[in-house]
């Protein structure tokens, strides 16, 4: 009898774990879970951050500190428990217009990082535009980076473009927010946005997605000439199969983490 009970318990545990696995694999366009504290209601601050003309030395004009920022990706390795991970080396915060979808020589950012504003207390005045150059995906493993990694995303290696920045729609994914709303249960922000990417499709596809934005509060850096910094982190998930990407290595869902740091130097 005891053996029978043990077998029934084991079967039940297998069913429960299997059910949880199915849910985790089929939950589409999910907002990363908040770190909510029961009973606590947060209030937004009053900080206002805008890029202006990004004039050096103007403390009222905020600049993207790209050197200390990152865009990271991760996805399940099919048939194994581990993750495949990587980063994009080239990205920016600019609404790339059709006239700007061309090649640029590497001399700083190809277009100005001025297509954003963050207002803690007024959601309606917060917005972001961003882009990533897909062929700069870097896994840290030369065998993958020189092989299937770039090809599976429907673009060409950097050498194909003569080492130039490529902002053509075959090589960039663009993000444009449609709504940003403060979440009083976590102190973060819920972000609705459109993601446009061609992938391996014949024309670019625009999908409406949802992410969670956290704000790292403004702080002063002590130096010969003190300056202030703040940070924004956006987390979201997309289904790469929607963009025609097929792979025997990575699963459907890919998590994206955008870590943007700013200063007013």
Compose a concise summary of this entry:
With 265 residues, this protein is mostly beta strands. It has helices at 2-26, 142-145, 148-151; strands at residues 48-49, 63-64, 70-77, 83-88, 91-92, 103-104, 116-119, 127-133, 137-138, 165-166, 172-183, 188-197, 205-221, 227-239, 250-263. The longest helix has 25 residues, at 2-26.
Give a description of the structure.
There is one protein chain. The chain has 265 residues and is mainly beta. The protein has a single domain (41-263), classed as Lipocalin (Beta Barrel). 12% of the residues lie in helices and 39% in strands. The chain is built from 3 helices and 15 strands. It has helices at residues 2-26, 142-145, 148-151; strands at residues 48-49, 63-64, 70-77, 83-88, 91-92, 103-104, 116-119, 127-133, 137-138, 165-166, 172-183, 188-197, 205-221, 227-239, 250-263. Strands 1, 2, 3, 4, 5, 7, 8, 9, 11, 12, 13, 14 and 15 form a 13-stranded antiparallel beta sheet that branches. The chain has a two-stranded antiparallel sheet with strand order 6-10. A hairpin with a 4-residue loop joins strand 11 and strand 12 (188-197). Mean pLDDT is 88; it is low at 1-27.
What is the distance, rounded to the nearest whole angstrom, between the alpha carbons of the first and last residues?
A: 74 Å
Strand content: 35-45%
Q: Which structural class do the helices and strands define? A: mainly beta
* Total strand segments: 15
CATH architecture: Beta Barrel
CATH topology group: Lipocalin
Q: What does the main sheet amount to?
A: 13 strands, antiparallel
Number of helices: 3
Order of helices and strands: HEEEEEEEEEHHEEEEEE
Radius of gyration using CA atoms only: 21 Å
Helical residue percent band: 10-25%
Top-tier CATH class: Mainly Beta
CATH homology superfamily name: Lipid/polyisoprenoid-binding, YceI-like
Residue windows where pLDDT falls under 50 for at least 5 positions: 1-27
Count of domains: 1
Backbone shape: globular
Overall average residue pLDDT: 88
């Amino acid at each position: 009898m005891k053996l029978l009970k043990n077998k029934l318990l084991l079967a039940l545990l297998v069913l429960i774990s299997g059910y949880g696995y199915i849910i985790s694999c089929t939950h589409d366009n999910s907002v990363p879970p908040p770190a909510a504290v029961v009973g606590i209601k947060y209030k937004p601050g009053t900080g206002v951050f805008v890029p202006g003309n990004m004039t050096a030395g103007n403390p009222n004009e905020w600049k993207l500190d790209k050197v200390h920022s990152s865009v990271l990706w991760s996805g399940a390795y099919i048939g194994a428990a581990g993750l495949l991970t990587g980063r994009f080396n080239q990205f920016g915060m600019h609404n790339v217009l059709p006239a700007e979808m061309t090649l640029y020589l590497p001399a700083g950012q190809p277009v100005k990082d001025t297509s954003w504003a963050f207002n803690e207390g007024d959601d309606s005045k917060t917005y972001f535009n961003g882009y990533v150059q897909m062929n700069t995906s870097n896994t840290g493993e030369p065998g993958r980076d020189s092989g299937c990694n770039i090809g599976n995303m429907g673009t060409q290696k950097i050498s194909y473009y003569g080492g130039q920045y490529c902002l053509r729609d075959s090589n960039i994914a663009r993000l444009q927010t449609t709504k940003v709303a403060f979440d009083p249960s976590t102190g973060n922000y819920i972000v609705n946005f459109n993601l446009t990417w061609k992938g391996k499709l014949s024309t670019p596809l625009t999908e409406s997605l949802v992410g969670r934005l956290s704000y790292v509060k403004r702080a002063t850096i002590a130096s010969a000439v003190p300056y202030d910094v703040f940070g924004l982190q956006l987390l979201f998930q997309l289904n790469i199969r929607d963009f025609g990407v097929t792979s025997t290595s990575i699963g459907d869902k890919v998590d994206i983490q955008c870590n943007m740091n700013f200063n007013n130097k």
